[in-house]
């Protein structure tokens, strides 16, 4: 074999090797793109499932409040937190403003273990204050909760 034939053979071998390496890289990029697309699809699916779960939680809490099975202030606070998550902390829609107002009005009050740090008279004062807010805003809050039962949470 002459030197020219050997060089041509070597050149062909280099081109074939580079072509195979290029094919390997192309497949790797294709696989990565597919994995990213699959991961994004899965993320969107999980996000949608989470939204649906939160929406159902909002409705469940609203039904419990309307049926008198749970304290309306506690329900308003829980619904506010869920609505904030559903709307990415956007300004509350007008029909739900009473829910937010009740939650905001009672935000300074101690809950759960925090209540243990206060005297009985202070707790009773907080309870009277909460009950006054419930009396003032109660019907508007209940109307807002009724609207939540059929809401799609996306409309403006």
Q: Which structural class is indicated by helix and strand composition?
A: mainly alpha
Radius of gyration: 31 Å
Indicate the proportion of strand residues. Answer: under 5%
Order of helices and strands: HHHH
Total helical segments = 4
Number of individual domains:
1
Largest sheet: none
Please state the average pLDDT score. 91
Helix content: over 70%
Oligomeric assembly: single chain
Distance between the termini: 80 Å
Residue windows where pLDDT falls under 50 for at least 5 positions: none
Number of strands: 0
Apparent shape: rod-shaped
Outline of the structure:
By secondary structure, the protein is mainly alpha-helical. Helices cover 75% and strands 0% of the residues. The protein has one domain.
What does this structure look like?
The chain is mainly alpha-helical. It has one domain. The protein contains four helices and no strands. α1 (3-66) packs antiparallel against α2 (72-86), α2 crosses α3 (97-105) and α3 packs antiparallel against α4 (120-148). The longest helix is centred in the N-terminal third of the chain and has 64 residues, at 3-66. The radius of gyration is 31 Å and the shape is rod-shaped.
Task: Name the features.
156 residues; mainly alpha; 0% strand; rod-shaped
Layout of helices and strands, plus pairs?
Blueprint: H1 3-66, H2 72-86, H3 97-105, H4 120-148
Helix pairs in contact: 1-2, 1-4, 2-3, 3-4
